[in-house]
Amino acid sequence: MALPSLLLLVAALAGGVRPPGARNLTLAVVLPEHNLSYAWAWPRVGPAVALAVEALGRALPVDLRFVSSELEGACSEYLAPLSAVDLKLYHDPDLLLGPGCVYPAASVARFASHWRLPLLTAGAVASGFSAKNDHYRTLVRTGPSAPKLDCIGDHVPRTPKS
């Protein structure tokens, strides 16, 4: 899974030694909490995040904040951005994780770019998220993107039907 690898990279870059006066690394998570139909739902990715936080914790203390972006079992277009704003206002995170659904991810990614805050997501597959210079400067997608899936489709051998 790419998420623990990326967070471990952050720990490695920290050098395992905490500089004097350093503060905690705050991770803010905006994901669906219960609906397992989403590949990036908290019950699916939470264990990987916990492993990464444990590894990071050896180099510097990690403060993990979780809020659900789910409303009545579905990704919420308005709850995810509001949750991200609350997390920024009250906890000032160093990194946002999620959301994965396209519409909520778009709003949160725009806020994250404005805040100059990295947003790490396994979702956000739509091709519009490739506009790094405009709205999505700080977005990092660990999952597939629509343009990449299209390229893969071009290389899959087509077999004639018998």
Short description:
Keywords: Glycoprotein, Membrane, Receptor, Signal, Transmembrane, Transmembrane helix. It is found in: Membrane. The protein has a single domain (24-155), classed as Response regulator (Rossmann fold).
- Compute the number of strand runs: 7
Largest sheet: 5 strands, parallel
Q: What is the H-and-E element order? A: HEHEEEHEHEEH
Q: Could you give me the name of the CATH homologous superfamily?
A: Response regulator
Percent of residues in beta strands? Answer: 15-25%
Number of domains: 1
Regarding quaternary structure, what we see is single chain
Give the termini distance in whole angstroms: 38 Å
Shape assignment: globular
Keywords: Glycoprotein, Membrane, Receptor, Signal, Transmembrane, Transmembrane helix
Pfam families: ANF_receptor
Signal peptide: 1-22
Domain Receptor ligand binding region: 45-146
Can you walk through the features of this model?
The protein has a five-stranded parallel sheet with strand order 2-1-5-6-7, with helices on both faces. A two-stranded antiparallel ribbon has the order 3-4. With 162 residues, the protein is of the alpha/beta class. The protein has a single domain (24-155), classed as Rossmann fold, CATH 3.40.50. The chain has helices at residues 2-13, 42-57, 79-91, 102-115, 146-155, and strands at residues 25-31, 62-68, 70-71, 74-75, 95-97, 119-121, 139-141.
